[in-house]
Each structure stands twice: as structure tokens, then as C-alpha cells.
Design a protein that fits this description.
About 30% of the residues lie in helices and about 35% in strands. The chain is built from nine helices and 15 strands. The strands form three sheets. Strands 5, 6, 7, 8, 9, 12, 13, 14 and 15 form a nine-stranded antiparallel sheet that branches. The chain binds adenosine-5'-triphosphate. Adenosine-5'-triphosphate (ATP) binds next to helix 1, helix 2 and helix 3.
Length: about 325
Amino acid sequence: MEKLVLHLLVNQHAGSGRGARQYKEVKKQLTEKEIPFESYLTEYAGHEKEIVETLLQTTLKPYVSGKPFNHLLVVLGGDGTLHEVVNALKEYPDIPIGYLPSGSGNDFARGVGVSRKINQALEQLLSVTQPTSISLMQAIDVETNDTRLILNNVGVGIDAKIVATANHSKAKSLLNQLKLGSLSYVSAALSSIFKQPSFPLIVETSTEKKEFKKAFLCTTTNHPYFGGGVAIDPTASAYTDDIHLIIVEKIFPLSLAWLIIKLFFKQHLTSPYLHRFVDSELTLTCPIAQVGQADGEELGEQEFKLRFKTTHRLFWM
Ligand SMILES: Nc1ncnc2c1ncn2[C@@H]1O[C@H](COP(=O)(O)OP(=O)(O)OP(=O)(O)O)[C@@H](O)[C@H]1O
């Protein structure tokens, strides 16, 4: 039987340089184990798509059970890099993707159970013999019909502001060097939380329509984690078709502080200030411009009308 060739798509800048260090370790391990591999290093944001398009023409094939499968695409980077690759392969859900998390937050790895220790993640990857189907969200812009695949979550309001603050903070790089990348989201949260205004929001599920006049946090999630390991909905799972939406309305600072404490102890879902919707399909309308984020990538400030559905793709895990 031919050996599986790994095609490593690497963002060396992920996790403020963690990607480069982990790539070195992975190369060493693969060479020692005599596992054949090719590397493709991203040189700029968006380069992932071009690399994937070239590989699609030359190398990548869908997985068919019982047939030889010789070339595996493996992403080494953070959630943002994986998001780009998954979207570049939107039309090819049967081409499996392996993943070695090297970002700051690594929420997808947490959500699907991939180790955030590089050697263990590599061991996990190399022990896989057949791919697993994982549920992703589709975020469809109702006006334009543009569709993005989402690994983790889409946020409007405070979590998007936290993502933007973390992405541009000098502390992120320092905290990543100290292997405390997740804390960059905590420090961004502390500096953004009292600046975020409330905004109106309309939620439509298959059974109800609800309007919020003063929403503050609005996160649609595919699995429990956002913001580098905060379990925003501990009951969500990337192995089911349910989409979980969490909304928190603007409340007094003391009540908010109490809710945040409960969040860290995973006791927040029972709070009267928190609204939770679970459905296989839902629509979210924010009629005034707000900041948004998708898998930690900034969507800028805009009005949102998004329909969420689920879909599946194969991962080598
Ligand atoms: N060579 C590169 N130079 C600059 N940006 C890059 C490069 N390669 C990829 N990118 C972009 O960098 C962005 C962030 O990458 P990624 O999310 O993987 O790392 P991170 O932000 O450190 O991790 P996390 O999302 O877990 O916090 C992505 O949008 C990706 O497309």
C-alpha cells in the first residue's frame, strides 16, 4: 500500500509566530518517521485560497471508502487559516482536511477534540485511518446570497469588538510568546466591554420570532467555544446539526460582572439575562450597523441579515 503523502499548508505567522515553531517540530517528526510530505507556506492573508486552488488541479481528490487515498491536505495555522481553507474547498466537502492547531485561540481544535499540543495533535492525525464528518454552519447573507462556511462562531456586537481589539492589540503578540494566547481575548474583553452600545436584533427560528431592543452580545455557535476557550454554550456540539444562538441584553454593570463570573463556571445558561435558541436553521437581523466577526475574522461594521444552516464536511480526525 502506498504511503499517505501529507500536503502541509502552513501559516507561520499564526499565533504570533507559533506556526513557524510548530512547523519546524512537525517537519522534524515527519522526517524521523519517514512520512512523505510537501509544504506550502502562506506569504500573505488570502494566499490559502490560491494554494488550495493549485492543489485542487494537481493533487487533491475526494475520499471514497474502499478506494486508495494517497494525498492529504493538512492545515497548520489558527482558526482563521483553517476558515480560509474550508471556504476555498466549499464545493468539495469530500476532500478531507487534517488540522494541526497553531493559533492563539484554537477554538475549533477545542470544539472537535484535537490536541493543542503539537506533538499530540500530530500523533492524533497520523493515527487516523478514515475521515470523520463534522457539522459546520453556513452563514448566508440574505441580500446577496453570499455563503460562508463557519467552523466556530459568528458574532455581532461585543464578541466582534473583542475579536477586533485582540487582533490589533500589541498584547496578543506578547501573550502568544508567553504561551498565553487565549488571554489576549480576556484583556481585549476588559477593554471593550463597557464601550459596546446596545443594538436591536430580530431572531427567527422555525417556531418563533423574537425581537430584542437592546442586544449586547449575539453569538451563533457551532460548538461550545469562543474567544479562546470560553464555553459560551457548553451544550453545543460540532457533531450534531443544531445551531446554538446566545443573546445577552444590555444590563447593569454589576449584573454583567455576575454573568461573566457564571460564564467562567459554565453556570450562565440559567441566567434570566441570557436568551438561547437552538434550531437547525435560523435567521438573524440586525438593522443598524454593528461590528461582526466570523471565526475570528473581522467582518467590519455593517447591517446584518444572515440565515444560518448546517452542512457537513470531512476532516481527517
Ligand atoms: N503569511 C501570512 N501573513 C499574514 N497573514 C496571513 C498569512 N497567512 C495567513 N494569514 C491570515 O492571517 C489570519 C489569522 O490567522 P490565524 O487565525 O490562523 O492565526 P491567529 O489569528 O494567530 O489564530 P487564532 O485565530 O486562533 O487567534 C487569517 O486571516 C489568515 O488568512
